[in-house]
Write a structure and sequence with these properties.
With 395 residues, the protein is α+β, with helices and mostly antiparallel strands. It folds into two domains: 95-342, no CATH class; 358-394, no CATH class. Helices cover 54% and strands 7% of the residues. The chain contains 20 helices and seven strands. The protein has helices at residues 14-23, 28-32, 44-53, 57-64, 74-107, 118-125, 145-154, 170-173, 204-209, 226-239, 245-255, 261-270, 274-288, 297-300, 303-312, 314-317, 329-342, 345-354, 360-365, 376-394, and strands at 113-114, 135-139, 158-160, 176-181, 186-191, 212-213, 222-223. The chain has a five-stranded mixed sheet. It has a two-stranded antiparallel ribbon with strand order 6-7. A hairpin with an 8-residue loop joins strand 6 (212-213) and strand 7 (222-223). Helix 1 packs across helix 3 (44-53), helix 10 (226-239) runs antiparallel to helix 11 and helix 13 (274-288) crosses helix 15.
Length: 395
């Protein structure tokens, strides 16, 4: 346990606890020494469903293939093996696409930093087959977004216009735009921010100065420096409630690298995320037995961290999927409160103030010519109330 912390896991499914126990085994002897009681009364269909939901089936498969075959039903092992093979081929395909996009962008003067995908799998796990990825996420300067869009469209990608650009709020309210290749079945998320605003984060220039180059590909592919990657992984995981164990496994892996904890603490303090870093470390230490070094005590001593870690267990008690609409109302309400609890006082102030900035929906209620759009600011409270009244009437 990290600094005596102990999270309440009573409502976490037994099948998920078994997966955690399997992943926590370090050696073949550990795997073979697991008590038989762990495998009693397991719903193996639910076991598989949870492994897929949490995107940990590759790691679980690598462990169970070393176990006594009698403990795991053959059809379960076969299904995990099949998913593992499919993921390996997908990661190889994504590696090729990543290298092609990186080379194209660099040739056209667009500095590109990959955030996730095969480059992170190789860095954290040493084997791209052990981490799952369904898309490629990368960061570019905002002023290069139009050029990036032109280049991707020429490659055959189609843009998903899921938000309106009628007002300039998209530049900080959103943080990425999505492209999909119909033939290659590849999705790209082109970021101009690490996370949606109005939170603070390092400038692209600073991230570029601290970038690393991957040894996975023959031509240069750049990704985040170690401390920047930790910052990104903990803020991304926390923003999604750690609703997939894969994100915590990433934390487990990166903590065991040589991080400059002093520099990392300063980075988290600068951007007001020490409590989020502490939350991630507590969750990883409790669920994945991640070794916690003394240098992390500053993060673990943050008052909010333990409370936030316990609050995140809610997302493990059920298979919470925040990416597929409609999200159940009780989950949506809990997640809104959890996101607010993650914010510092300064972040909460700017978050609340952001509601005073007009939304694209306001332009639909009251269309105004461009030279009069400044009126959306004083009219914002009235337009918000009008939209709410219309919504209530329709429901």
């Amino acid at each position: 346990m990290a600094n005596g912390y102990s999270l309440n896991l009573d409502k976490v499914p037994r099948e998920l606890k078994l997966q955690l126990e399997i992943m926590n085994c370090k050696t073949v002897d550990d795997l073979k020494g697991m008590e038989k009681e762990w495998f009693a009364d397991i719903d193996w269909d639910k076991f598989l469903e949870l492994a897929m939901h949490h995107r940990v089936y590759s790691v679980v498969y690598q462990k169970i293939k070393q176990m006594d075959p009698i403990l795991i039903p053959e059809d379960v092992r076969n299904k995990l093996q099949q998913k593992y093979k499919i993921n390996t081929f997908q990661m190889l395909a994504l590696s090729g696409e990543m290298e092609q996009v990186s080379r194209l962008f660099l040739e056209n003067g667009i500095r590109t930093i990959f955030l996730k995908g095969p480059v992170i799998a190789y860095d954290l796990y040493g084997d791209i087959s052990l981490r799952t990825s369904s898309d490629l996420d990368f960061l570019i300067p905002l002023h290069d977004l139009d050029l990036a869009e032109d280049l991707l469209i020429k490659l055959g990608y189609v843009k998903d216009d899921y938000f309106s650009k009628v007002l300039n709020d998209w530049k900080w309210r959103h943080h990425h735009i999505t492209f999909f290749h119909p033939q290659r079945k590849v999705k790209l998320e082109v970021h101009w921010r690490l996370n949606p605003g109005p939170s603070q984060e390092p400038a692209f220039h600073d991230l570029w100065e601290r970038k690393r180059v991957s040894s996975l590909t023959s031509s240069p592919v750049y990704f985040l420096g170690k401390e920047d990657l930790f910052l990104y992984l903990v803020t991304h995981g926390a923003r999604h409630g750690w609703s997939r164990l894969r994100w915590l496994v990433d934390i487990h892996q990166i903590v065991q690298q040589e991080l400059d904890w002093s520099k990392l603490y300063q980075l988290l303090m600068k951007y007001q995320y020490p409590h989020v870093g502490g939350q991630a470390l507590i969750l990883a230490s409790q669920l994945l037995k991640t070794p916690i070094v003394a240098e992390t005590n500053q993060l673990l001593s943050v008052n909010q961290s333990e409370r936030l870690a316990q609050a995140a267990i809610f997302y493990l008690e059920e298979m919470v999927n925040l990416h597929t609409d409609p999200v159940p109302e009780n989950v949506a309400m809990y997640h809104k409160r959890h996101l607010f609890s993650l914010m510092s006082k300064r972040q909460r102030f700017f978050f609340i103030m952001s509601f005073l900035y007009p939304y694209p929906e306001d332009t639909e209620v009251l269309p105004l010519p461009k030279n009069l759009q400044f009126l959306y600011f004083p009219l914002r409270p009235f337009l918000w109330a009008w939209r709410k009244s219309i919504k209530r009437a329709l429901s």
